[in-house]
Design brief:
heterodimer; A: alpha/beta; two-stranded antiparallel sheet; B: alpha/beta; 2 domains; seven-stranded mixed β-sheet; five-stranded mixed β-sheet; 12 helices; 36% helix; globular
């Protein structure tokens, strides 16, 4: 059983991730940011459950719907929001946007917009840990859509053969953009993909942050001890459309969306905490209000931050020296 | 053999090696010096690589640093990217460059872009070695010259050694480079012998070399074509035409200065490439020359390269596709007659 302080921290983090996505949506709607959003609302328990179970030296790789993972791993909110908004102060100086960042300073290997593209990156980072004999565990976040990419299978096979310390966290939110899992995938449970490559695969409730936490902790201990990879299929649901301009209604029913909103991961933990006598409605409202107020402040600063200068930085294409990591 | 053989600073003795052996010696040298360097690829460990380059490394460095992989080109290169980001220096072997397109996303959209797209927070120090050359018996999936396709992607460095000494010096620079480097190794050159300096020997990436000095015409070329250009130059010498040969050695970044300096002197340029001409390396270099030297040129910049067909299997078909020495001589003579050479 997790202690109360940790559970409350996880609750706050989930609220923060949701508030961040809502702030992005607001900025997108009033055209204050560039590019689109990929809302993580509804999936917060996975990022928070996984990252809360890690050590500071552990690493994560993310994907296009990645802001939640970064926040949970310890990204700076202002720098992250600046990158989403194409500002010079962003993680990538405005070059990458929300789909293209990386900072080993907080154990973030990177994310890209190729679906499944960073699964081999995470696996390779785990290979480095194994070759070096260090104790890092690497998390590879990806979705049900990525589970059907060839390179994901190639990477998982090598992780199985070499017993790499990697945890494949497959966020099964049921839709690859607009195509349902049922229409794209012949197996019912994606966790069989782990077994297919010789390691454990589990399907868990991705909306229960404590379940995700415990499963990650177990998989991480196994990986650290030389026991190899784990596939965690976290079943969840994306509340919003695939991207900012997608209402998310053309390919799924209102009833389905509503039913999943009832299984809200924040609500779930909140109710458990209240039931256990560790939280009151007033306390929850205060945590929430504080988080939203903090984000308003961050957003004000980010909106006022300068755009990059109009210049072609040829010198930034190649690294002149090795980047000092962490 | 292309001269000068040894172009960089040497510290110790020089010994005669095949290019294949020079590459192997370089891997051994750097793996012994730097514990972050490891080798992975299909059949590189027990078998020693499809072309014998990694032979013996398994026995010397053990299976944690010499990894036989499954047949998964995209996955292998993708894992190398992650290992590089996480502090290692992987050297990957992909048996044929025909297989590089399987890993195009990992090379072009991941390895090449990480540094720029993360605002300089991440770098990817890795090397991908791959064999190229159009040769009979290989056919459409085992004998490509697709190096030109990779010059489109800013962030990749590309090297193509011609001599055993350059193979060592360039590969050593590549392993130590903080960026992803593609090393194209010619099938025709693996067995060619030449002097190789022992110990530290670095050839800078991005520097071409003048292999043969001449005053009448510059042939800009690379890889196995350097030898054909050299043979053509011997024949042309008998006809009174004095050829200068620029061996690119690096395709990205291109050494504009050496190319332009040579053509500014000779005022006539041929670009000779084993790869397809359309949209390729030779097109890029021809454009660069005329943009910089248009009014100085005494004739058009002529390209000779592969015919626009997939690489075929049977010897006569291959010979028809790839420029040979006679074709190079003929092309120069045609230009000479029309353009009053020398």
């Amino acid at each position: 059983m997790l202690d109360t302080a940790k559970r409350k921290t996880m609750l706050r983090q989930m609220i923060l991730i949701r508030a961040f996505e809502e702030k992005l949506e607001e900025l997108y709607q009033r055209k204050a940011m560039f590019g689109s959003t990929h809302s993580y609302r509804g999936q917060e328990a996975i990022a928070v459950g996984v990252c809360s179970a890690l050590q500071a030296t552990d690493l994560i790789a993310s994907y296009h719907r990645g802001t939640g993972h970064l926040i949970a791993k310890g990204a700076d909110l202002y720098t992250l929001l600046c990158e989403c908004m194409g500002r010079a102060d962003g993680y990538s100086k405005g070059r990458g946007g929300k789909m293209h960042m990386g900072d080993m300073g907080f154990g973030f290997i990177g994310n890209t917009g190729t679906v499944g593209g960073t699964v081999p990156t995470a696996t390779g980072a785990a290979l480095a840990a194994k070759v070096r004999g260090s104790k890092e565990v690497v998390i590879s976040f990806f979705g049900d859509g990525a589970a059907n990419q060839g390179v994901v299978h190639e990477a998982m096979n090598m992780a199985g053969v070499w017993k790499l310390p990697v945890i494949y966290v497959c966020e099964n939110n049921q839709y690859a953009m607009t195509v349902s899992l049922e229409k794209s995938t012949a197996v019912k449970q994606l966790s069989v993909r782990g077994q297919a490559y010789g390691f454990e695969g589990k399907t868990i409730d991705g909306n229960d942050v404590e379940t995700v936490y415990e499963a990650t902790q177990e998989a991480a201990a196994k990986g650290r001890g030389g026991g190899g990879a784990t596939f965690l299929e976290c079943v969840t649901y994306r509340w919003d459309g695939h991207f900012g301009g997608d209402p998310g209604t053309g390919y799924r029913s209102k009833e389905e969306v509503e039913a999943w909103k009832q299984k809200c991961p924040i609500k779930k933990l909140k109710e458990k905490l209240i039931q256990d006598g560790h939280l009151t409605e007033q306390e929850f409202a205060k945590i929430s209000a504080d988080v939203y107020a903090e984000l308003d402040e961050v957003a004000k600063r980010a909106e006022a931050a300068p755009l990059p200068k109009k210049e072609v930085d040829l010198g930034g294409v190649y690294a002149a020296t090795e980047v000092a990591h962490g | 053999m292309a001269k000068p053989m040894v172009t960089g600073e040497t510290q110790g003795a020089v010994k005669e090696l095949r290019m294949q052996e020079a590459l192997r010696e370089t891997l051994r040298y750097e793996m012994a010096r730097d514990g972050r360097v490891f080798v992975m690829g299909e059949d590189v460990a027990l078998f020693g690589g499809a072309y014998g380059v990694t032979r013996g490394l398994l026995q010397e460095f053990g299976e944690s640093r010499v990894l036989d992989t499954p047949i998964s080109e995209a996955g292998i290169i993708g894992l190398a990217v992650g290992a590089a980001i996480n502090g290692m220096r992987p050297v990957v072997e992909i048996q044929f460059c025909d297989l590089l397109p399987l890993a195009m996303d990992q090379l072009a959209s991941h390895a090449a872009r990480y540094h720029y797209m993360t605002g300089g927070r991440i770098n990817v120090p890795m090397v991908v070695r791959s064999k190229f050359a159009t040769r009979s018996g290989g056919g459409p999936s085992h004998s490509s010259c697709n190096h030109g396709a990779f010059i489109h992607f800013p962030g990749l460095k590309i090297i193509m050694p011609t001599t055993p000494a350059d193979a060592k010096g360039l590969l050593l620079s590549a392993i130590r480079d903080p960026n992803p480097v593609l090393c194209f190794e010619s099938h025709y050159l693996y067995g060619v012998r030449g002097p190789v300096p022992e110990g530290e020997y670095l050839v800078p990436i991005g520097k071409a070399v003048v292999r043969r000095e001449g005053k009448d015409l510059t042939i800009v070329t690379c890889g196995g074509m350097v030898l054909k250009a050299d043979a053509a130059a011997d024949l042309l010498k008998q006809k009174g035409i004095d050829i200068e040969i620029v061996d690119l050695r690096s395709l990205a970044p291109l050494d504009k200065e050496t190319i332009i300096d040579s053509v500014a002197k000779t005022k006539r340029a041929f670009v000779l490439d084993e790869g397809p001409m359309i949209g390729g390396l030779s097109a890029e270099i021809a454009a660069m020359i005329q943009e910089n030297l248009f009014s100085d040129l005494k004739g058009p910049v002529v390209r000779i390269g592969a015919q626009p067909i997939p690489p075929p299997h049977s010897p006569p078909l291959v010979e028809a596709m790839i420029p040979d020495v006679d074709q190079i001589v003929d092309a120069v003579m045609r230009l000479a007659e029309g353009g009053k050479l020398p």
